[in-house]
Design a protein that fits this description.
304 residues; eight-stranded antiparallel β-sheet; two-stranded antiparallel sheet; 9 helices
Length: 304
């Protein structure tokens, strides 16, 4: 990031040296830096018959070091006019390249409500669950149909959404220790449930999280008719979820759900770094440790 013109030449030279050493090519790209943007992405589909549609947008602004933590559909920060505009841009981009498959066209929305194209992910996204939840479209099933050469099952006019959905990436990390990965054996696991709650996970009590892969070990998705209700349902589901034996981001997400800016749907990609106090939550002890402490106290008392 170059904030002053006088720093440009040195920064460029440094970047070129790194590129040359790493890739044997000193060519670099220069792009505009958008400060405190909202990260908005559009789910699109294209088939081999020239049909392209979108399934509305997702808000992925809650992230840390450019890695998404919480994803929301639709974005509670867009107007209907912005939603229609960004959906149209996603379709236009997919059509321009003759895209076939499910894909995600990603944008940054600056503080002056200008959209900037960022990238396109030509695959299924981790956060596809929130789009499925609000639209009722099985995205994986549609991918299979497209791969088989079938036309899209839906027209754009047939796609609508209802309510809000929110997905939490449950990462085996310790937020209190700079989000250091936490691997090892899960001593106790309980999955939340109830209306509007979806779990995508393969973990269980006794499962060992290895140190070799991405730290995400589960995905929790909640749905409700309005924004306030989906935030509250998320808090409840996070509170019901139990993962002992390793540290996770569950209590950290609970703190985010309580924050006034988040509850007011007023956040951008700088939210996490702007609120370091969110890691100051009380650490809950597993029941087995509490029981052991009580037993030790009783034993000590009887010994006295």
């Amino acid at each position: 990031l170059v904030e002053k013109a006088a720093e440009f030449a040195d920064s460029l030279a440094s970047c070129q040296r790194e590129a040359s050493a790493s890739f044997g090519n000193a060519h670099v790209l220069i792009e505009k830096y958008i400060q405190r943007p909202r990260h908005i992405e559009v789910q699109v589909f294209g088939d081999s018959h020239g049909n392209v549609i979108h399934l509305f947008e997702r808000d992925c602004s809650i992230q840390r070091r450019n890695q998404k933590l919480i994803e929301i559909a639709p974005s509670p920060q867009l107007t209907e006019a912005q939603r229609e505009y960004i959906g149209g841009l996603g379709v236009k981009a997919a059509k321009a390249v003759g895209y076939e498959n499910a894909g995600t066209v990603e944008f940054l929305l600056d503080q002056n409500n200008n959209f900037y194209f960022m990238e396109m992910n030509t695959r299924l996204q981790v956060e596809h669950t929130v789009t499925e939840t609000i639209t009722g479209v099985d995205i994986v099933q549609q991918q299979i149909r497209i791969a088989y050469g079938l036309p899209l099952q839906y027209k754009q006019s047939e796609i609508s959404f209802r309510g809000f959905a929110m997905e939490y990436r449950i990462n085996a990390e310790d937020p209190k220790n700079d989000f250091l990965p936490s691997f090892g054996k899960i001593t106790r696991y309980y999955s939340p449930g109830g209306p509007g709650v979806r779990m995508d996970a393969a973990i269980y009590s006794g499962y060992v999280i290895p140190p070799y892969y991405d730290s995400m070990c589960a995905k929790l998705t909640v749905w409700a008719l309005d924004w306030e209700s989906v935030v509250e349902r998320g808090r409840r589901a996070l509170g019901d979820m139990v993962v002992y034996g390793v540290k996770t981001t569950i209590p950290y997400y609970q703190e985010i759900m309580k924050h006034p800016d988040f509850k007011g749907a007023n956040f951008n990609t700088s939210f996490v770094e702007s609120h370091p106090e969110l890691t100051n939550y009380a650490t809950e002890l597993p029941p087995e440790l509490i029981a052991a402490a009580i037993s030790a106290a009783i034993a000590a008392h009887e010994g006295i």
